[in-house]
Amino acid sequence: MSVPGLLVAAPRSSSGKTTVALALMRALARRGLRVRGAKCGPDYIDPAFHRAATGHPSFNLDSFAMGPALLDAVAGHAAAGADLVVAEGSMGLFDGVRAAPSRTGANADIAARYGWPVLLVLDVSGAAQSAAAVALGCATYDPSLRVAGVVLNKVASPRHRRLVEAGLERVGIPVLGALARDAGLVLPERHLGLVQAGETADLEARLDRLADLAEAGLDLDAILACAAGAAPSAAGALPPPPGQRIAVASDAAFSFLYPHQEAGWRAAGAEIVPFSPLADEAPPADCDVCWLPGGYPELHAGRLAAAERFRAGLRAFAAEKPVHGECGGYMVLGESLEDADGVAHRMAGLLAVATSYARRRLHLGYRVAHLVADGVLGPAGTRLVGHEFHYAGEMTAAPDESVALARVTDAEGTDLGFAGHRSGQVTGSFFHLIAAEPA
User: Which part of the chain is the CobB/CobQ-like glutamine amidotransferase domain (predicted)?
Assistant: First the structure.
């Protein structure tokens, strides 16, 4: 059975996409619909909120990082058992990298591939009829897309709404709802975006309030009627597991594991065994690989430094079996981590790198890497595609080929040199793996 979908997108970032997407997901789920979320692009925080709103996993759909077969496999898993897929965009509707058509990483690639109409969120603060010109541009920029209608966000008054609607009526774009300017709707944030779903106080109450606002301010029946297109079936290969029994660090410091990775591991019969470094737990010795995802270790550096059982257990595990760390996990595998106050905390000491969050500088973008040597991520030469988003930096010298994990470029092929580290069976880097291809 084909499953229709909608893409909640916007002309730019910070327009209210997450607010509208969560409100819509929760409201439709409360009506008894089997709603599934998806996130366009490399994001590991929003899918956790989608899961809280719908009660089901939400998957990332990335037209740059994922080849067509993997993209369709993930989309199929996103739609499995659903009545409707509500996908949330990232940045602006057409924002991506310079790449082959339909492979730019933009939200628009996903909507066009699966025939999902666009529900355009317009932040109308500081604008009235001019908002219609923006909407019209989005509606006509790419003829392969269909903008089904708009939701007005941050409406100041009934008069303001009438003025905005007058402009949209002139260009023939339907208004399918409106939300007033309300600071209470804003979810709490920190340096990498929203505070994690599991850490957000009163999350269920917040989601129910968003659903109430959707019932009152959005034409849910009209929005449902706009849903169209179809995701493929859930056939196709997801990423294979790095082992059959995988110890995965999982707590407030380590939570950024892409859902399609986890789903692929489970689909192949692997068992995921969570443990908490913040609770001073060591990776279980009966696992055959240990994975330290990204997260916020910089906010918990003191506790991690004091977690003697965790660090000793991790070193013992690494003496015999593979260990890999991504971003925050990479920082913890290093010699030390400097927190925002400039205090250096001792880490596991398994990789020859020292990192600092005190000397903040944004690192953001896709990374295309080729492994230097055989390891848990694949044989030498394997092509990896991932994404970096962090403010921490390396205080130690850049690695050379003898200790680096991979040779890396950005999305446009600019050589960034060697990146990440390896030592024995321990590997790590700042980029989060999305897809891997054989050499």
Answer: 245-437
